[in-house]
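Page 42, continued from yesterday. The earlier attempt failed because a stray header line got pasted into the input along with the sequence. Redoing it now with the clean sequence only.
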Amino acid sequence: MTDLAALPLSDAQLSEAQSSDAAELLVLQRCCWVPQAIVNDTFDVPALHEDLDTVRGWVEATRVWTVRIGGRLVAAVRAHLEEDRWEIGRLMVAPDLAGQGVGRWLLSYAEQQAPPQATSLVLYTGSGSERNLTMYRRAGYQVAEPPANTLGKHIRGAVYLTKSV
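This time it went through. Structure tokens are written below.
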């Protein structure tokens, strides 16, 4: 079990996102995905093209957790059950706090929220996102072929990773 006290930022607070968090999530998402678009040589990244209503929609439709320090939104992740897969996505940490273990901690937290019927944990990242790939591999994920029913839903160069529950 992930210990909230072990969150690697002092005074950090974890909470479930609300619709009112959507604007801040949109800003954080853009800050995090521009560098990802650059290293993956494509700006065809859905996170860069979503509008406020889209973000508000996924906040309402999925489980989303946020990390705040002194009121500032510094990290977030979302997850939902798709058939028997616990799909984790939009894992983001403010660029000025990257490399401090927050992303790994939040990934672990999201994994632990998987419902009992989930048989695997899955996520996507860009093939050029070496930092992400390293973190996911260290967390036990392996590159795999995506399920047939998800083909065409993700961008060119997306890497599908999975881990058994």
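Notes: The mean pLDDT is 90.
Reminder to self: strip header lines before submitting.
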